[in-house]
C-alpha cells in the first residue's frame, strides 16, 4: 500500500477548512483574511475536536513561500511610477502617521517593560494598515469614488512601499540585537547601497532581456521565468542580509513596468492565492488561546492604541498636508486597523528570536479586532467629523480653513521657484555621483575581489575594478557638468547679480565632490601616495567630467532605465494614439512665443538683449527674427548654433544684431516657454498682454512671412550612417538648417534632447526646418 506523505493530507485539511470558513465569512461580509486566520485556528493544536496538522515543518515552508508570493504579487501591482501619482498629501500623511506610530509603539512597549528591539518591532506592526481590508470595506459600503478615498489609497501605496523597507531595517536591527548602534546603522546603510545598485542594474537588464525573447515565450515559459526571478531575487536578498520578502517585492516591481506585467499577474494569481491562503492559515495555527487569555489586557491596550493612534496621526498628517478637516477625519478612521504586514513583521521577530512568544498571537488578535471594527468606523466617520466640528472652537476651524487655502495656493505656484528647482536638480545629480562612488568602493573594489580571491591576481584585479569604478562615476560626473549651465542656472545667473556667488559656489562644490569621489575610490583600492592621488583626481575630474562620450553613454543608460520603468505606460499611450496622432504628437507639445525686442540688460560690461539672453537661459531656441514684417536672414539664423547666435545678435554692428522693434520667435516645450514668460513678467520685462504662446502647428500655418518650415520625422535604419553617432556630430542644424526637437528610443520620446544623445537603429528623430533642405539627410537615414 502506498504511503501518502503527511503534507498532502495536511494540505487537504487546511484547504477544505479554509474553503468552508471563508464561504461563511463571505456570507457575513467579513474580510477573507479573517476567515483564513480562523481556519488556521481551527486546524491548529488549540482545537482538539478538529483534525490537526501533522507535518508542521512542511506547512511552515509553504507559509514562507506564501509570504514570498504575496510580496511578489504586491510588487507586480506596484511600479515606481505610482510614486509620482499619489501626490504630496499622501506622502506627508503616510510619513507623519508611520513615524509617530512607530514612536508610539516604541513608547508603549517600553512602558510594558519590553526590550528596545521588541518594542521597535511592535511599532512596525502598528504602523501599517491593511490594503485588502480597506478595499473590501470601501467596496461593501459603496464609497470607493468619494474624495477622501483617493487620499487613503495614496497612503496605502506609500505604506506598502515603506513596509517593504521597514522589513529590511527590522531584520537588520533584529539580527544585530546587542550590537553597537553605529554598527547597525552602518550595516543598514551598506545593504541599502547594495539594494539600490541591484535594483538599478535589474531594471536595465531584466526588461530588456524580456523584450529580446518575447516572441519565443509562451505562457508556461513566462510563468516559470517569472517565478525563477522571484525566488532568485529572494535568495539574493537573504544572501546580502535582507529579508526574502524584500527580494520578492523588488522582483515584482521590476516586472511591473513591463508590457508583460498584466500577463504575468494573470498567470501568477492562482499561485499567489493558494500559497497566500496557506500563509494566513499558518498565522491562525500559531494563535494560542491561552496566550491571548493571559494577555487580554495587552490585547485591549494595543487595539485601543491602534485605533486611536492611527486615526489621530493619519488625521494630523492629512491636516499638515493641507487637506480639509472632513477629509482628514474620514481618512484617519478608514486607516485605523492593521493587517497582513503586521503578521509578516511578527513572524520575522519570532524567527529572529527577538520578540516574546506571546506577541504573535496577541498581534493577530489585535488585527482581527481592528479589522472587524473597520467597517463600523468608516460608516460613522461623517458623524465623527460633525461631532468634532461642534467641539472645536471657531478660531481653530478658521485656522484649518486658512491652511487648506494656503496649500491650494502653494500648489498653484509650483514650478515658479527657480532656486528650488535648480537646487533639487543639483543635489540629485551630485547625490548620484556620491552614490556611484560609494557603490564602486563597496561592490567593485571590496566585494568582487573578495568573491574571486584565489582565481585572479589580487592587486592587479583590484586596480582594474577601481578603474572601472572611476569610469562608472565619470558617467554621473559628466551628467553633473554638462547639464549644469542650462535652464535654471542661466536664468538665475541673469536675473540677479547676488545669485552668482551662490551659483559659482555650487559649481565649485560639484568639482570638489567629483575630485574627492575619485580619491575615495583610489584610496579604497590601496593607493597611498598623496601626490599621485591628487594628480589622478584632478585629471579624472577634468577629463571624465567634460567627456562627451561618457555623457552620451549616460544618456543612453538613462533612456534605457526610464524606458524600462515606463514600458507598460508607453505601450498604453502608443496604443491609445492613432497613426496621425502619433505622427503629430511632438508638434502638439512644442510652443512658440513671440516677443518684441525692446529690453536690454547690462552683462559683461555691455548692453545685451534681455529677451534673447533670458530665452537662451531657459533653453529656448531662436527660430526667427522678424523685422518690418519680413524674416531677417532666415537661412543663417536656422544654421547658426545657439552660442554663435547669442554672440551675433548682441553685436549692434552685425546684420543679425537685434534692433528695437524686432519680433523674436522662440521655440520650446510648454514648460520652457511658460518658465520664460513667468521670468520676464516677474522682472517687469514683459507686460501681461504680451505673455502669450501658441502651439507650433498653429504657428506654422501663419505662412512663410513668419516661418517657412514644418515639423518632420527621420527614422534611423540599421544601415544608416547616423547609427552610433551623436546629434552634435551629425550637425543637423548646420548641415540642413533643421533643429532637433525630439528623440524617440524604444518608444520613449524625449523633447529637446541633449546634443550628446547617440542615435541607434530603430530610433526616430523629429526636426523643425525645411524638409527640402534635409532631403539628403533623410535619404541617408
Automatic annotation (TrEMBL):
Record-linked PROSITE patterns: RCK_C (PS51202)
CC annotations in GO: membrane
Cell location: Membrane
Residue ranges occupied by any RCK C-terminal domain in the UniProt entry: 697-781
Organism this protein belongs to: Gordonibacter massiliensis (ex Traore et al. 2017)
Keyword Membrane: yes
Membrane topology: Multi-pass membrane protein
Protein name according to UniProt: Cation:proton antiporter
GO molecular function: antiporter activity; monoatomic cation transmembrane transporter activity
Main location: membrane
Family per record: Belongs to the monovalent cation:proton antiporter 2 (CPA2) transporter (TC 2.A.37) family.
Origin superkingdom: Bacteria
GO term, biological process aspect, one: proton transmembrane transport
Pfam family membership, one: Na_H_Exchanger
Transmembrane residue ranges: 6-25, 32-50, 62-83, 90-114, 120-139, 151-171, 191-210, 222-242, 248-267, 274-293, 299-321, 333-352, 358-378, 426-448, 460-482, 503-524
Database matches in InterPro entries: Cation/H_exchanger_TM (IPR006153), Na+/solute_symporter_sf (IPR038770), RCK_C (IPR006037), RCK_C_sf (IPR036721)
Record's keyword terms, sorted: Membrane, Transmembrane, Transmembrane helix, Transport
Amino acid at each position: 500500500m502506498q504511503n501518502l506523505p503527511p503534507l498532502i493530507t495536511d494540505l487537504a485539511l487546511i484547504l477544505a477548512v479554509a474553503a468552508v470558513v471563508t464561504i461563511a465569512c463571505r456570507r457575513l461580509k467579513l474580510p477573507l483574511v479573517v476567515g483564513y486566520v480562523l481556519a488556521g485556528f481551527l486546524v491548529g493544536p488549540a482545537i482538539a475536536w478538529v483534525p490537526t496538522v501533522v507535518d508542521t515543518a512542511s506547512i511552515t515552508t509553504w507559509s514562507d513561500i506564501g509570504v514570498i508570493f504575496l510580496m511578489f504579487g504586491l510588487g507586480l501591482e506596484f511600479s515606481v511610477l505610482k510614486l509620482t501619482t499619489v501626490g504630496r498629501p499622501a506622502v506627508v500623511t503616510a510619513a507623519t502617521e508611520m513615524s509617530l506610530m512607530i514612536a508610539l509603539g516604541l513608547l508603549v512597549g517600553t512602558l510594558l517593560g519590553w526590550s528596545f528591539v521588541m518594542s521597535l518591532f511592535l511599532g512596525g506592526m502598528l504602523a501599517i494598515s491593511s490594503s485588502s481590508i480597506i478595499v473590501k470595506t470601501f467596496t461593501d459600503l459603496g464609497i470607493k469614488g468619494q474624495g477622501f478615498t483617493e487620499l487613503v489609497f495614496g497612503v496605502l501605496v506609500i505604506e506598502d512601499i515603506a513596509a517593504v523597507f521597514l522589513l529590511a531595517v527590522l531584520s537588520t536591527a533584529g539580527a544585530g540585537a546587542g550590537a553597537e548602534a553605529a554598527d547597525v546603522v552602518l550595516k543598514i546603510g551598506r545593504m541599502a547601497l547594495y539594494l539600490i545598485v541591484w535594483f538599478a542594474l535589474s531594471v536595465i537588464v531584466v526588461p530588456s532581456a524580456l523584450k529580446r525573447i518575447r516572441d519565443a515565450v509562451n505562457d508556461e515559459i513566462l510563468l516559470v521565468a517569472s517565478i525563477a526571478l522571484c525566488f532568485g531575487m529572494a535568495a539574493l536578498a537573504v544572501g546580502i542580509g535582507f529579508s526574502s520578502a524584500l527580494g520578492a517585492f523588488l522582483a515584482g516591481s521590476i516586472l511591473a513596468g513591463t508590457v508583460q506585467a498584466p500577463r504575468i499577474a494573470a498567470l501568477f494569481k492562482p499561485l499567489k492565492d493558494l500559497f497566500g491562503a496557506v500563509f494566513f492559515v499558518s498565522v491562525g495555527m500559531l494563535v494560542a488561546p491561552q496566550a491571548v487569555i493571559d494577555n487580554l489586557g495587552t490585547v485591549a491596550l494595543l487595539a485601543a492604541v491602534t485605533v486611536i493612534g492611527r486615526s489621530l496621526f493619519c488625521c494630523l498628517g492629512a491636516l499638515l498636508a493641507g487637506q480639509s478637516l472632513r477629509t482628514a477625519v474620514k481618512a484617519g478612521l478608514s486607516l485605523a486597523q492593521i493587517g497582513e504586514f503586521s503578521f509578516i513583521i511578527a513572524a520575522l521577530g519570532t524567527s529572529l528570536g527577538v520578540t516574546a512568544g506571546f506577541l504573535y498571537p496577541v498581534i493577530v488578535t489585535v488585527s482581527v479586532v481592528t479589522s472587524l471594527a473597520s467597517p463600523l468606523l468608516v460608516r460613522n466617520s461623517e458623524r465623527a467629523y460633525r461631532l468634532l466640528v461642534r467641539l472645536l472652537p471657531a478660531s481653530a476651524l478658521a485656522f484649518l480653513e486658512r491652511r487648506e487655502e494656503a496649500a491650494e495656493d502653494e500648489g498653484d505656484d509650483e514650478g515658479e521657484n527657480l532656486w528650488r528647482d535648480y537646487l533639487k536638480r543639483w543635489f540629485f545629480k551630485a547625490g548620484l555621483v556620491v552614490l556611484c562612488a560609494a557603490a564602486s568602493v563597496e561592490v567593485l573594489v571590496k566585494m568582487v575581489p573578495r568573491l574571486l580571491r584565489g582565481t585572479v591576481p589580487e592587486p592587479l584585479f583590484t586596480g582594474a575594478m577601481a578603474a572601472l569604478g572611476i569610469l562608472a562615476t565619470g558617467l554621473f560626473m559628466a551628467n553633473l557638468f554638462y547639464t549644469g549651465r542650462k535652464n535654471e542656472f542661466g536664468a538665475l545667473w541673469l536675473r540677479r547679480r547676488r545669485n552668482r556667488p551662490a551659483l559659482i559656489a555650487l559649481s565649485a562644490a560639484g568639482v570638489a565632490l567629483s575630485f574627492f569621489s575619485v580619491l575615495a575610490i583610489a584610496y579604497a583600492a590601496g593607493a597611498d601616495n598623496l601626490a599621485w592621488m591628487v594628480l589622478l583626481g584632478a585629471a579624472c575630474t577634468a577629463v571624465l567630467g567634460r567627456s562627451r562620450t561618457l555623457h552620451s553613454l549616460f544618456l543612453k543608460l538613462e533612456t534605457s532605465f526610464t524606458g524600462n520603468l515606463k514600458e507598460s505606460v508607453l505601450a498604453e499611450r502608443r496604443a491609445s494614439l492613432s497613426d496621425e496622432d502619433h505622427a503629430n504628437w511632438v508638434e502638439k507639445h512644442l510652443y512658440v512665443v513671440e516677443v518684441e525686442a525692446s529690453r536690454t540688460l547690462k552683462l559683461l560690461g555691455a548692453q545685451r538683449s534681455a529677451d534673447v539672453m533670458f530665452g537662451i537661459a531657459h533653453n529656448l531656441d531662436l527660430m526667427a527674427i522678424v523685422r518690418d514684417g519680413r524674416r531677417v536672414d532666415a537661412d543663417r539664423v536656422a544654421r547658426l548654433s545657439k552660442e554663435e547666435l547669442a554672440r551675433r545678435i548682441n553685436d549692434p554692428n552685425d546684420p543679425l544684431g537685434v534692433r528695437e522693434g524686432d519680433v523674436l520667435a522662440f521655440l520650446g516645450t510648454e514648460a520652457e516657454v511658460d518658465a520664460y514668460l513667468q521670468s520676464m513678467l516677474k522682472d517687469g520685462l514683459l507686460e501681461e498682454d504680451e505673455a502669450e504662446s501658441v502651439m507650433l502647428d498653429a504657428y506654422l500655418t501663419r505662412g512663410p512671412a513668419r516661418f517657412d518650415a514644418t515639423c518632420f520625422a527621420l527614422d534611423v535604419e540599421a544601415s544608416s550612417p547616423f547609427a552610433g553617432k551623436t546629434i552634435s556630430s551629425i550637425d543637423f542644424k548646420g548641415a540642413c538648417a533643421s533643429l532637433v526637437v525630439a528623440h524617440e528610443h524604444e518608444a520613449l520620446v524625449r523633447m529637446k534632447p541633449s546634443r550628446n544623445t547617440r542615435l541607434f537603429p530603430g530610433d526616430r528623430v523629429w526636426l523643425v526646418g525645411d524638409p527640402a533642405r534635409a532631403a539628403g539627410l533623410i535619404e541617408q537615414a
